[in-house]
Amino acid sequence: MFSTKRLVSYAVLFMALLVVIAACAAPAAPAPAPAATAAPQAAAQKTYKDMTLCYPQLGAESDWRTANTASIKETAAKLGIKQLVFSDAQQKQENQISAMRACIQQGVDVIALPPVVEDGWEAVLTEAKNAKIPVIIVDRSVSADPSLYAAHIGSDMALEGKRAAAEMNKLLNNQGAILELSGTTGSGAAVGRAKGFREDLNSNIKILDSQTGNFTRAEAKPVMEAFLKKYKPGTDFQGIFIHNDDMGIGAIEALKAAGVKPGEIKIVSVDGTRGGFQAMIDGWFQADVECNPLLGPQVFEMALKLMNGQPVDKNVLTNETVYYPDKAQELLPTRQY
Ligand code: AHR
């Protein structure tokens, strides 16, 4: 018969066998239930391919504007955005407002607005804000409350005016009289340049007259012709401050027709277009204050940040300089506009 010791060993073995069989037969442990408080999934970042951007361009009044339009269109194509809704308001604020309203209706992602004038934007900016469409003010400024738009990208127009005054002070040795051919009345560019210019112009230089040429060659020429009927070049005035190169080119046509020779009247212009560089080479402009229209890359970069709810700088100013005749010939081939 079995010894007690052997019986105990058999019993232990039998028990172990039972444990193994029970373990194999047990149902699989249920998968852990998802945690009731799982972290919310981060919203997918939007890309340029998701972007519909509205650009109600103010017009096509100057070479500067043509370059600005090209910069926006070329950048949109290069980045491969979903849609660029572009329109030309022909220098009329009501056209820009209608274009903005159509964009709000369409539900675009971002509106980038180059405003023709400073005032009168409150209503449409409020409509965009209520529709949760961020607006970037591009180029010129608006007088509306900054809470109504996301940011501004463009030039410091008052600084441009101050730079022009510094050049005029040097050219006239801080004395004499000048004329001013101003930009579009009520535009941020004209208001800012006129203000900065007056702040820094030497008090011994008198502004004899100031008229608008609406930033165009066609409108500036008759204004200059009218000036020349009223004031004798060299005697009544020695200099002209002109708010953009296109108006400068229109003014040159009138000056030439009146028998004025390049350099007899000191001209300070603004923009730094190829036309302005040629006017410096030809001896008509003695300085050209830069205003850079190539804003496309900055506009789209900011628009993407806004689409993704990221913070942006409220006022992004363009870095600019002053150009002179001595480098004009060398720099002309490098000019992009
Ligand atoms: O707002 C920028 C100004 O507008 C440029 O100086 C001028 O050429 C354009 O028409």
CATH class of the largest domain, named: Alpha Beta
Shape: elongated
User: How much of the residues is beta strand, in percent?
Assistant: 15-25%
Q: Mean pLDDT score, rounded? A: 92
Alpha-carbon distance between the two ends = 113 Å
- Output the strand order for the largest sheet: 2-1-3-4-5-11
Instruction: List unreliable stretches of 5+ residues.
Output: 11-38
Q: What distinguishing features does this structure have?
A:
single chain, 337 residues, alpha/beta, Rossmann fold, 2 domains, 6-stranded parallel beta sheet, 6-stranded mixed beta sheet, 11 helices, 12 strands, elongated, binds alpha-L-arabinofuranose
Write the layout of secondary structure elements.
Blueprint: H1 4-25, E1 52-57, H2 63-79, E2 83-88, H3 93-106, E3 110-113, H4 122-130, E4 135-138, E5 151-154, H5 157-171, E6 176-182, H6 188-200, E7 205-212, H7 217-230, E8 239-242, H8 245-257, E9 266-271, H9 274-281, E10 287-290, H10 296-307, E11 315-317, E12 322-323, H11 325-331
Parallel strand pairs: 1-2, 1-3, 3-4, 4-5, 5-11, 6-7, 6-8, 8-9, 9-10
Antiparallel strand pairs: 10-12
Helix pairs in contact: 2-10, 5-6, 7-8, 9-11
Bound molecules: alpha-L-arabinofuranose (AHR).
Summarize the structure.
With 337 residues, this protein is of the alpha/beta class. The chain has helices spanning 4-25, 63-79, 93-106, 122-130, 157-171, 188-200, 217-230, 245-257, 274-281, 296-307, 325-331, and strands spanning 52-57, 83-88, 110-113, 135-138, 151-154, 176-182, 205-212, 239-242, 266-271, 287-290, 315-317, 322-323.
